[in-house]
Amino acid sequence: MTDVPQLRIANTANNGNTGTACPRNRSVLDYDTEAALLEALQGVHISPRVVVPSRNEEPASTVTIPPQPTTLQVTESASATHVTDWIMPDHPTSSDRTRQTPEHEAARLLVLRSYEILDSSRDDPAFDAITREVQERFQVPWACLSLIDLGRQCRKSMVGDGLSPRDTPRRDTFCGHTILDPSGLLVVPDATLDPLYRHKPAVQGSMALRFYAGCAVTTPEGYRLGALCLLDRQPRPQGLNADDQRDLRTFADRVVLELVARRNRLQSGRKRSASLAQDIKLPFGSIPTAPSSTTASETDSSGTGSDHGTSPPDSPPLRRDENKRSRVDLQALQHAIVPDTAPIMPAVSSSKTHGPPCAPKLCTDLMIPRPPPNVLLPDPQTSGVDPDTYLVQLVEALWGAKLVVKPALELENFFPVISEDQMAAYNMTVVNLARNNQVDQLRTYYQQHGRTVLDCFNRFGEGLLNMACRRGFVDMVQFLLEDVGLSVRVRDDYGRTPLHDACWNPTPQLAIGTWITQRDPVLFLIADKRSYTAFQYARQSDWAVWRQFLWDQRECLHGLTAPHVLAQFSA
């Protein structure tokens, strides 16, 4: 890659117009090839330095060019606006930021395009749930997930009144600076006091923005696609403390998880559509591959959806070590889709006590038979169908098995019996570490004392896995399942399983649901003492999300047709 000097551009104070008038902001979607995109980015010859106004100077309205010749040359086919629309202004008093080059920017934009998220519907429950949690956690008027395109900022998800959904010129944004910050975290305590930000339209206009904090959304490929940010009309001189920064980074990690899962669903759906279209009669002529927005009929009059039983309090946000990437980043993302094959799930031992840990056979391990030809599969985008009904319809359509739900407390030799030793191991040290989502400390405790200290339960039959699933502690669940090897087939004295707890969380816990489905899909057929399945604790407004989840995980559902399962759960 050629080492191109950084172009430094003066700030602007013209409410979004940079240089000459531009009919619209450019997008990576405007270019069909990588060569065309790179040419669009390289429509300017870059000198090592361009003069920038000092703190005491008023920002220029156009690019400031030093007197030497050929410092900045614009090609005949590009306007000055288009040439500079992707280049963020430098801070007048600081140069501590990642250098922008056409080659790196082209690579970043191609990765952004590969996620197929630009210009998609803004009604996305998975992303909206995260931004709502961010708003509540940090008590700000607005929270937003922004994607930084070639010359524009696209708001994928936002909460708060009065925040415009329209695209914003990239150079007018705060998030455009966030993705260039070396730490990936940008905090502006009071924008009116900062010479780089005080002239931004969001600060000068009706929004009257004062406080901004954003964390870059960094993909497994290593590119920053945008930022998850907090916005407030009130300045916050203290900025964000260490806990706040960790929490915001972890929320951004969850955005990455959803982005990758979404892209994988799209790619996997297209692949299977090509292979199955020849022998399966598909609804409406195609296989649905992406979650649809929740229809009005699936949302109650309050806008929050029906909630069976009492909803638990909002779970505290995930936390992670400041200097370590979340363990969810790569391993969990690889499990975000169902692979091309899935197994018949093995029977769980009917031993009265927990035996030694064994490697679970996931739905990636064994081949499953293809569905019969000429089968009409239920469409997950059909509104009004609850997830339990859709599950039964899908399994019957795929493999001809008719299933029924069974109460957990009536099943014999199905759930292991909790021992006195396991209840004795349930001490406050372990509980506090799990309750506070201190994964690293719990891992150290596990390494020092062994598996038995974490395979513990209280007198009601609730274990650490139940707690982590209920609170949506994704890192904790992954550690308990993959490192410790805890079983998901456990229940409390009310008949609730870890899947019940995961569905009880106000936010659809798709990653946790995926891991449980891969290990033991039979838990979908378990009802608690109130005769509620796990999905009956999910909000009605999330039915569409869970139907799509079942469609995406349909290969793993073949475990429901195993002989030992049919012996107990067939209609």
From TrEMBL:
Xref: PANTHER family: GAF DOMAIN-CONTAINING PROTEIN, SLR1143 PROTEIN
SMART domains (alphabetical): GAF
InterPro entries associated with the record: Ankyrin_rpt, Ankyrin_rpt-contain_sf, GAF, GAF-like_dom_sf
Name the UniProt record assigns to this protein: GAF domain-containing protein
Pfam families attached to this UniProt entry: Ank_2, GAF
Annotated stretches, region: Disordered: 283-324
GAF domain sequence ranges: 122-269
Origin superkingdom: Eukaryota
Biased composition (Low complexity): 285-312
